Amino acid sequence: MSAPLIDKYRKMASFDWKKLKIELEGEDYIKAKESVIERMKADPAFQRDYRVLSREEAREINFRRWKSIIEWGLVNDVYSDSEGFQAMHEVLESFDQGTSARFSLHSSVFAGAVKSMGTERHAELIKKIDNNECRAKVYEPG
Description:
Strand content: under 5%
Structural class: mainly alpha
Largest sheet: none
Number of helices: 7
C-alpha cells in the first residue's frame, strides 16, 4: 500500500504532527478510530468499488456495510459511549457518507427517539434496536 499523499507535507512540517494530533484528539479517540479503520480494511463489504454504481447497487453495498457494522458489535449508542460513537461516525463519514448517514439515522435519530421516551415498556424494543433486529426503514434489499 502506498503512503498517503499527506505524508509529503507531514515531513515538511516544522512541528511534530503526531503530538498535535494527540493533543487535539486524545489517544483513546485515535485508538478508537484506528480500530474502526482496521475492521473496515479487513471486511470485504468495505472494499472500494470505483465504478459508477446504479442506485440499486449503491443501496445494496450500503446495506451490506451496515450489516457488518452491527456484526462488529462496536458502538451504536451515542449515550453509552459518546467518544466511541463519534470516532465511528467520523471514520464512516470520511469513507462513505451513505453508510455514515444510515449509522446516524439509526443510532441517533431512531434509537435516540425511542430511548428518550425512557419508559420501561420500551426496554425490549431498545434491545432489538441495539441488535439491529428493529431498525428505521431506510432500505433493505429483496
